Request: fold
Amino acid sequence: MKTKEYLGQIKKINTILVNKQLEILEYKEMATKTTVPTDQERVQTSGTSDTVGNNTSIFVDKENELKEEQRLLTNIRDEIIREMEMLTNPMHYDVLFLKYVDDKTLEYIACEKDYSYVQIKRIHNKALLEFEKLHGSTYLDKEIECRFRSTQ
Reply:
């Protein structure tokens, strides 16, 4: 795995975390939704009639499962950010944080920092090299696509 791919995991993790939250809200809505059939009167029923109870049970189980996945993903994301914080050059940290955590383009960063695009690109490349020197042994040349693949 290359340094850009390693840091790029943050964007994917952020997307997954947002989707997990939406999933939890969806299950919560299903659990609290009550409907009454209005098409015709039924004399005999079969199966369970406690739809709210069943949906609530499913919601609680699913919410616990999703929250555990969120915790694992958040830990991975936070670990990568802590590794960024170990950079000695504050500008390197800032550029990597804006690029990979805040998901900003190099053009945007150049404008925000009042630097030229070429300067920011150079700083970005130096920041990647510094990050790689500090942490490359943990992810370089690994045959894994993402460290959080097993949680999906």
